[in-house]
Amino acid sequence: MTAVTPSAWQTEPFPDSPQGWIDRAAEVAAVLSTDAAARDKAGATPYAEVRLLKESGLVTLLGPAEHGGGGQSWPTAYRVVREISKADGSVGQLLGYHYLWNWAARLVGTREQWEHVEAEAARNRWFFGGAVNPRDNDVVVTEDGEELVFTGRKSFSTGSKVSDVTVLEGVLEGTQTHIFAIVPSNSAGLTFHDDWDNIGQRLTESGSVTLDGVRTPWSSAAGFVDKVFQPRVYNTLNVPTIQLVFVNLYLGIAAGALETAAAYTRTKSRSWLHGGYDNAVDEPYVIDAYGDLTAKLWAAEALADRIAEEGERLHGDPDAVTEATRGEFEVRTAAAKAVATEVSLEITGRIFEVTGARATTSTEGLDRFWRNVRTHTLHDPVAYKRREVGRFVLTGEIPEPTWYS
Questions:
Q1: Same domain assignment for residues 149 and 105
Q2: Where among 172, 199, 229 does a domain terminate?
Q3: Measured between alpha carbons, how far is 223 from 236 in angstroms, rounded to an integer?
Q4: Torsion of CA 82, 85, 87, 89, to 10 degrees
Q5: What is the pTM of this model?
Q6: CATH code of the domain covering residue 94
Q7: First to last CA, the chain
Q8: Quick one: 254 and 166 in the same domain?
Q9: Which domain holds residue 385?
Q10: Which pLDDT score, from 0 to 100, does residue 40 have?
Q11: What's the domain count of the chain?
Q12: Are the C-beta atoms of 74 and 308 separated by less than 8 Å?
């Protein structure tokens, strides 16, 4: 990775406004963009990239200001994820997931737990990873006195080796109860495997992880009091909050693709020899394509921002969240996910129409945008997101909270 000189960030105070943090993210993105294609090709563990996120303060964005955090809200976090993703989708995903795992303590934990986690995370600039895939009961949690023991294997573990702490998830033996706990990433028995070899999001450290008797105190089990979970409707906001991270990841990658393609068209594309124009930027079909794709992107971004603000009203008063307000937020988020998926795939695929054959060289690396979007948009079928919206429109039905709805 290009050498980073973070001295300016270390001597300057944190931004004091949402726009200030978005501007800070743009500064980080400018550094990442200088060698994004080369780093994608190398596929090396992104230690330097995560260090950049820490030195810039972006990892503390959601943390309490009194403990050294940015004191910002989810709408700002989404915009920051989008900004970083313009330059590097992998780093955008790492940061977005970091925000999610950091917030997980507030999502399901007791007040004492989440206040402790958020304070420590902000003070120490922890970077979070997560070994969480509740679709499969692949990790069993057993009791050993006042300790919990996690044993099993997870197929995915985004963040893995570059994280300071990892959120674990497993099912308590003999029950259907899922337990979440935060442990140091260097905990005994926690082994991350270098087996993430997908076509896109190559630097996300999303390989499998083995849990061979990883121990943590019962007191670290998020949301449990005297070994009994204390449920709230707010606990079910995990899916729409996660999905909005995905939405902004996709839109950021799409915006990056469009910006990179436009720069190529302006400086390198040649006009068609039979078109009658001296410059590619003057060709009507090129102008039309950029106008079409930009209009679609702007519309999708506006929808994402609007829904983020709607969600923040729920985050602002967790105890007031009802099944109805949660359900409507999930439906709105599902609509944004469907639109963002379609728009990002279209943009990252069509940019080659307006850049030309020479833009397909591996040196340019324009294919990384499509590979990144195509890989992550398969996380969960978008058809089921459209189904949530359709059922709500036709029957008023809101989605039942699951790990994916």
A1: no
A2: 229
A3: 13
A4: -170
A5: 0.96
A6: 1.10.540.10
A7: 38
A8: no
A9: 233-395
A10: 96
A11: 3
A12: yes
Q: What b/e sequence results for 331-351 when a residue is b if at least 16 CB atoms lie within 10 Å of its CB, and e otherwise?
A: bbbbbbbbbbbbbbbbbbebb
Asked if 326 and 233 touch (Cβ cutoff 8 Å), the reply is yes
Q: Render each residue's pLDDT in the chain as its tens digit; 405 residues.
A: 544 455 578 778 899 999 999 999 999 999 999 999 999 999 999 999 999 999 999 999 999 999 999 999 999 999 999 999 999 999 999 999 999 999 999 999 999 999 999 999 999 999 999 998 777 679 999 999 999 999 999 998 999 899 999 999 999 999 999 999 999 999 999 999 989 999 999 999 999 999 999 999 999 999 999 999 999 999 999 999 999 999 999 999 999 999 999 999 999 999 988 888 999 999 999 999 999 999 999 999 999 999 999 999 999 999 999 999 999 999 999 999 999 999 999 999 999 999 999 999 999 999 999 999 999 999 999 999 999 999 999 999 999 999 999
Q: How far is CA 189 from the centre of its chain?
A: 27
- Sequence letter at residue 299: A
Domain containing residue 301: CATH number: 1.20.140.10
Reduce the secondary structure of the chain to three states and give it as a string.
CCCCCCHHHHHCCCCCCHHHHHHHHHHHHHHHHCCHHHHHHHCCCCHHHHHHHHHCCHHHCCCCHHHCCCCCCHHHHHHHHHHHHHHCHHHHHHHHHHHHHHHHHHHHCCHHHHHHHHHHHHHHCCCEEEECCCCCCCEEEEEECCEEEEEEEECCCCCHHHCCEEEEEEEECCCCCEEEEEEECCCCCEEECCCCCCCCCCCCCCCCEEEEEEEEEHHHCCCEECCEECCCHHHHHHHHHHHHHHHHHHHHHHHHHHHHHHHHHHHCCCCCCCCCCCCHHHCHHHHHHHHHHHHHHHHHHHHHHHHHHHHHHHHCCHHHCCHHHHHHHHHHHHHHHHHHHHHHHHHHHHHHHHCCHHHHCCCCCCHHHHHHHHHHCCCCCHHHHHHHHHHHHHHCCCCCCCCCC
User: Do 247 and 197 reside in the same domain of the chain?
Assistant: no
**CA gap 195, 254 in Å, rounded:** 27
